[in-house]
Amino acid sequence: MNNAQRGQTQHRYMGEDWREYLQSEKDGTMRIKAHGDMKVDARIVTDHEHLAKYADDRGPEQLVNAASLPGIVGEAWAMADWHFGYGLPIGGVIATDTEAGEQGGAISPGGVGFDINCGVRVLALDATIDDIPNIKKLAGRIAGRIPAGASGKGGLDISMSDLQNIISGGAEYAAELGFGNSDDLKNLESSGRLETNDVELSSRAKERGMRALGTLGSGNHFLEIQCVESVEDNDTAKHWGLYEGQLLAMIHSGSRGLGHQVCSEHSRKLEQMYKRDGSKWYNENWDYTVADRQLACAPFHSKEGQQYLDDMNGAANFAFANRSALAHRLREVLTLEMGSNGEARTLYDVAHNIAKVETHLIHGQKCQCAVHRKGATRAFGGDQLELNSSFQKTGQPVLIPGDMGTGSWLMAGPISGQNQAFGSSCHGAGRSLSRTKAKKTIDGKALKLELENAGIRVHASTPNVLSEEAPQAYKDVDEVIQLTAKAGLARPVARIIPKVVVKG
Length: 504
Description:
The chain is α+β, with helices and mostly antiparallel strands. Helix content is 29%, strand content 27%. Strands 7, 8, 9, 14, 18, 19, 21 and 22 form an 8-stranded mixed beta sheet that branches. A hairpin with a 4-residue loop joins strand 11 and strand 12 (288-290). It is globular, with a radius of gyration of 21 Å.
């Protein structure tokens, strides 16, 4: 299918404009009332001003499309950092009933994305900027030790047997290999491991994974040394051992080429099972209709659905292990430069491209759901059994990278219970310019000079990377945080600013 054909699949309602069904809510969101084939309402974390500033019909249209998926429950959500994606907008959150119909509601690779378990780890150092002898030298050493870019050059040397064990064992097995600390596991989402059932990825997926462990990747992936600029929630910050002026390390990376291959294979297979039916797409085996072929899906309990879930979990495990390996490499550099690793302890590690089976209250009834978070971060309450007991009094840490010239945020989920978006929050600032437009309009070399004049040491594989990831290419992260807090999805804990940036 060419690009023109793909574009046609985005416009489902032929004259029905989602804006006609848009209404403001009192909780800091806007609702698109169910219409056409929508089975549930859609909700966007926004206000009129924010919507007007970043209006792009394609993202809300994708959300409307997703609201018609088989077995969908609750509401289809777009976080404050939403923007156009593949099938489901980035920042999208949807849940399907795993027990709907004969084989369960839908599970969709397009609802997760290509970089499975792209996520964030934050390490807290017992140090300030004054404890670093030479920030320029540290930045250079990190860039030299942490491979970045599209290739897997510089990845850790592992065997095929090791790779298979990582796919099954995640961060736990990485620690066994010496690429991470077992003490970290309690502060990783799902302890850094999702259950798999004799997962056997394709040879191509494993080939791409063999070269990639311990590498950042390209695009918006990064490693930053950051400084706590301000504390907004003193009690929570104190409980997490954070203070103003403290150094943090933020690692943003995912499952690299291995995860991309998994998504590509399953998306291609499922899309081929759908045939055009007027303006929609139909699968006669399951009697499934989707508005956009990019949302091609399988029933949760079908062979295809379970195979995708298993492979996705395996790719997610690789991503957890990858961030462990990156943290390990960073600790080695910190030891060389500071005489110790700054006691770099893992505050938390979260996934933001994932589908997970969770239990939620839907209209007062318990529902076992397949919650798809695509560019969205889990924001669980402190009473959730999965969380480390140290977060019972604060709620789960929610890690929100912003942009390399402005800053990032630490937020927290509710003290107890779940928020209205299936326990989800935003995952970043969200793009306001496409990569193509950013490259055409922003001078990467000039930006690097501007950032370094502001005291931010920047290392990037190419000037184009800086152009694509420039602060001007992103929404205002502070505004995204305000909207997220207003909607009651998470609360701000601390604002953090970059000091060293290593980009892919």
